[in-house]
Amino acid sequence: MTSLPQPLSNLSSKRRDGLVFVIGLLLLFSPVLVTMGFVGGTDYHYEGVEVVTTGDTLTYADESVVPDGTPISDEIACSGTLLQRGCALEPALADGETLPLGIESDNPNDDPAIADQPYEFVQLEDAVYRTSYMTGADNTVKVAINSTSPNIALHAVSVDSEEVSSTVVEAAEEGEATSRTSVDVPETPVHLDDGYYRVYVTQEADEGATSPLSLMIFFGAALGGILLLSLSRKLRVSYNPGR
Length: 243
What we know:
single chain, alpha+beta, six-stranded mixed beta sheet, five-stranded mixed beta sheet, 11 strands, 33% helix
């Protein structure tokens, strides 16, 4: 018969039983410990990149690290690495044309029918433009775009660092951050003291997938239950006065 390792063989029977009890308990409750974030688990990974001005437009300081389809802001159409329908339509408006919206209003800026604008700014190849609404002689509302400063647009769409989680701030300041739980990430730049940074998620825990780690946790919990059950039977046999 294989002898116990030297450290275990020096323990009394009660101490070995106590050690088995602790190990079994930890294995049994390992799923709970993972959920609470004490051990294991899959982290959410976030990264940040600075948004800078180049001439009259906005761009990422390092566009190569930004995932495809990531706009600089959801309020700036045709920006970043995201291409939208507006990119084919707005160049005509940049030439001074207007686009009828098919509705009538005598006060388009406060009309609830158009209050929810699809975006406030649009970036074309040469500049950043701001949308505006006007009413013709027949009260027909038309939309136009007018060039504006990229710095004004960036400041207008950004959120202050105090309005986001510490994880988002860390990703903006350090370039990356991890979190055991998911956090809300604004789809627009975060304003820090030294500039503006776009934060995005690069790795998201897939709770529906069965990973090797989840299988290990499952079998570990099962093993813990078996150890505790075996220990309880041993105790009943060893300490039952009738035996």
